[in-house]
Each structure stands twice: as structure tokens, then as C-alpha cells.
Design goal:
single chain; about 280 residues; two-stranded antiparallel sheet; about 0% strand
Length: about 280
């Protein structure tokens, strides 16, 4: 065997090893999803049975319909859409405005204010639960959509993410628009935002999925069952008579579908945002 053939064989073996390792890691990450779906199509007795079986003996496909009908699942679904959609819209608007201010405007103390702004990321969110609840309660917004939406809609991460993308846009475009008489707001809406759609799409996706799966804050604020979101509503399958784990898993599977569809629809924006972020060189 020549030296060139040995080199090709070594490269092929290395590729096989790399792909095998990546496939193994992918299976490990996919196993919780597979286990959730597997338990969603079993009877509750089989979910709790020992020894544990990877696949169910009998596929109970009716669990999905039963989950939808036994609880006001449609109402929970609509509540989650309202909360997640509202938080996403507010977050994107606020992040665009603050990101543009930190990236383009020059005012005294801007960098220090940015550092202080980013410093809030170091505060564990669990430590803010009690102060936020006291504020929401004093404003009379307990068990309202405003109480769930407003405290989580003004995050720091979105402002920093969009600021970094805004910095990558050539200043000459903005200067040309200002010479033509465009205002700051007009420049932001007509030039900066269209050029930053990959980053805005990524921020929208992360925010929507994060709020769609948010459990703790809606559980604390929404005291009424009618206003519960999907993660909170599924807890109603836990009763004094027992927990219907198969229905909870079926509901969790159904609740994941919007996030999966959204990720598929926005995958091109996600790839573009990652490519742009890599090209920024950490600027």
C-alpha cells in the first residue's frame, strides 16, 4: 500500500470515528424526546411498570385525544400563544431600540451603562421571583396576562445580541440616510432592522420557545385555571387519586409541536445569523 493510500485510509477511519461519536451524542440528546413520546402512547400502568420497557406493549394512540378533551387544552394552547407571542414582540421591539442606542448613539456614560446593563445577566433569575411577585401583586396584576408578560419581556440578552449585529452594519449606510434627511427612528426601521433579520429571527425563536416552555413564573402569577398556560395546565393531571403520567407526556408532546414547526420555518434565518455572528469575530 502506497503512502497516499495509507493517508486516505487514515482520513476515512478518522471520518468514520468522528461521525460515530457525533451520532452517539445525537442519540443521547434525542433519547429524552423518544422516552417522552414512548410514554405518551402507553397506559398509565405500563408507564409505572417494572421492569421498564423501551417500547410499549400496546400503542395507546387515543391518549392524545383524551389529553385534548379531558382538560381545556385549546384554552391552555391559546393562553400560551398570547403570552409567548406578546413577550416575543415586546422583547424584539425593546431590544431593537436599546441595541441601536448602545451601538450607534454616543452619549456620556454609554459604555458604563452597557456594562451595568450586562451585569444584570449575572443575577440568577430565581432570586428575582419574590421581588417581581411583590411588584406584580402591588400593581394588582396577579392572575392577569399583564402580570405574566411584562416582567419577563424586558431582557438584557436580546439588547446585547442585536447590538453586536448592529455594530457589523457599515456606518456609511446610516450616514448616507442622515444626509438624505432620515431620522434615527426611520434609519432603524428602514435600514438597520431589515439588514438584521437573521439576528432578529434568532432572538424571536429563542424568546418564543423560552416563554412557551416557561413554567415557574406563570405558575406563580396565574392563580386561576382558565388563564393557565400549557405547562401549568398539564399539572392538572396530578390529583389526589394519582398522576396520569401518560396524559402528561401526551400533552407535553403536543405542546412541543409549535416550537418544532417554528424552528423548521426559521432554520434559514438561524443558519444566516450563526454565519454572520462567526464573521463578526467577536466584535
Amino acid at each position: 500500500m502506497t503512502t497516499r493510500s495509507k493517508s486516505r485510509a487514515g482520513t476515512l477511519a478518522l471520518d468514520i470515528l468522528n461521525h460515530g461519536a457525533l451520532g452517539l451524542v445525537a442519540l443521547l440528546f434525542l433519547f429524552p424526546f423518544f422516552w417522552m413520546v414512548s410514554n405518551a402512547v402507553r397506559s398509565n400502568a405500563e408507564v409505572l411498570a417494572i421492569p421498564v420497557r423501551i417500547l410499549p406493549n400496546v400503542f395507546e394512540w387515543g391518549n392524545f385525544a383524551a389529553t385534548w378533551t379531558q382538560l381545556p387544552f385549546g384554552r391552555f394552547f391559546l393562553n400560551s400563544v398570547i403570552v409567548s407571542g406578546s413577550v416575543t414582540i415586546i422583547t424584539v421591539v425593546v431590544s431593537c431600540l436599546s441595541g441601536y442606542a448602545f451601538a450607534r448613539l454616543k452619549f456620556p456614560g454609554r459604555d458604563a451603562l452597557l456594562m451595568a446593563y450586562l451585569g444584570t445577566l449575572m443575577v440568577p433569575s430565581i432570586m428575582l421571583i419574590i421581588p417581581l411577585f411583590l411588584i406584580v401583586n402591588s400593581l394588582g396584576m396577579v392572575n392577569t396576562f399583564q402580570g405574566v408578560i411584562l416582567p419577563v419581556a424586558f431582557g438584557t440578552f436580546g439588547s446585547f445580541l442585536l447590538r453586536q449585529f448592529f455594530l457589523s452594519i457599515p456606518m456609511e449606510l446610516e450616514e448616507a440616510a442622515r444626509i438624505d434627511g432620515a431620522s434615527r427612528l426611520r434609519i432603524l426601521i428602514s435600514i438597520i432592522v431589515p439588514l438584521s433579520m437573521p439576528a432578529i429571527g434568532l432572538l424571536s425563536l429563542f424568546t418564543f420557545i423560552g416563554q412557551w416552555n416557561n413554567f415557574l413564573w406563570p405558575l406563580i402569577v396565574m392563580t386561576g385555571a382558565d388563564n393557565a398556560t400549557l405547562p401549568v395546565g398539564l399539572t392538572q393531571f396530578q390529583t389526589q387519586q394519582g398522576t396520569a403520567w401518560n396524559y402528561i407526556m401526551a400533552g407535553a408532546t403536543l405542546s412541543m409541536l409549535p416550537g418544532i414547526v417554528l424552528a423548521i420555518l426559521l432554520q434559514k434565518l438561524i443558519y444566516n445569523s450563526i454565519a454572520l455572528n462567526a464573521g463578526m469575530g467577536g466584535r
